[in-house]
């Protein structure tokens, strides 16, 4: 470090830590805690550091029986996204300055998170290679095989090794352990659940899937993927008051089961018939889809009953306000150059979030956490090309649950998320365990918000309460690990 406290190069030490003390009041209780912000190496088989992973680790002070204290290991997604999102808006002790609905408020900055789960669990936020301050060694990656890091299975393999070292260094082997992953992070933690058990002999109490991405559905052209967006269309159209009066007067929680039932029992079989569907049935299905989606029957027929989400974002409000709606949170409005077209010019919600997240996380590390560096914090890092082959993560999670009677899974989704829709998550739960033997350990919670449902104040409280209940319920001692 130089006289200013900043490093004089753009390379962070591979193995370092800065420790500070702080406090926050959670649900009326003052909590004193320690924060360790640092880097920990990734080694190759010869013991040579080939990457340095940046992490932030929160532990509550003055805890008796620390070995019984739960540890939550937090990942965001992308792939290529830093851990900033859940760190600075969901479970951590500091959150963004945003209004009650989750929109940025200037001046940018952060405030106490009075709903954080730090009262019941310690949390570590992990940044995979090229996200946050994490980098390859050397940073340009010369001499390092990018395939070691950038792919579904490579990512899972090296992160499991890294977590073994982290848990050992911090003496957390006896702690009940939880993985939480948002978006692509859901794919990551599903795969990690089995990799940690079978290769690191580290057994978990819980996995939390926040707006999870199941690529066996999302990147498929089969009838599942084609039909499953309709309940999201209905939720978003309801929010923007684009449905018929008899639907608008219903509460969202009363409307969605009706649309889900139609999707499974009528829409999916209709799409499965393809071009051989009878004209009368095609028209009847299109009428019902229009009724639930806010689009016109003509638009739906022009798409052969399969309406891309991008068209929905562009077209729902075309004839009313001309605005587009957000991909990750369809409460947000965008303004395109022209109203015509089949997809928005940009993601209205993401540009809004970057307004507040980027200055907040950079300021937070320098001022509160005393972690000073000239290295750029990568909100999104260069991890391409990303190898998507051999994605078995959905079944990996099922296998991990089958092997480990302690392992429970919680899904959390926002109803206005158009990227990884809530009904994709519910459908994935059922497909993961087709025999139904594990359903008592699978739970779903939905929220009146988008992909990052915790941005909305009401859902920040509710989602943290759901996490708190899940952790307390599944970390109890004294039960026997057998069927």
Features:
483 residues; alpha/beta; ten-stranded mixed β-sheet; two-stranded antiparallel ribbon; 35% helix; globular; disordered N terminus
Describe the structure.
The protein is of the alpha/beta class and 483 residues long. Helices cover 35% and strands 18% of the residues. The chain is built from 15 helices and 14 strands. The chain has helices at 84-87, 152-169, 184-199, 215-218, 223-227, 230-239, 245-248, 252-272, 279-293, 297-302, 309-315, 348-367, 393-403, 422-432, 457-474; strands at 16-26, 29-43, 49-60, 71-75, 94-96, 110-112, 122-127, 135-136, 177-182, 206-210, 324-325, 333-334, 408-414, 442-447. Helix 2 crosses helix 3 and helix 8 (252-272) runs antiparallel to helix 9 (279-293).
Question: Summary?
Answer:
The chain has 483 residues and is α/β, with parallel strands linked by helices.
The portion of residues forming beta strands comes to 15-25%
Largest sheet features: 10 strands, mixed
Count every beta strand, where a strand is a DSSP E run of 2 or more residues: 14
H/I helix tally:
15
- Which structural class matches the secondary elements? alpha/beta
Q: What's the order of the H and E elements? A: EEEEHEEEEHEHEHHHHHHHHEEHHEHEH
The residue-averaged pLDDT reads 94
Q: Helical content, roughly?
A: 25-40%
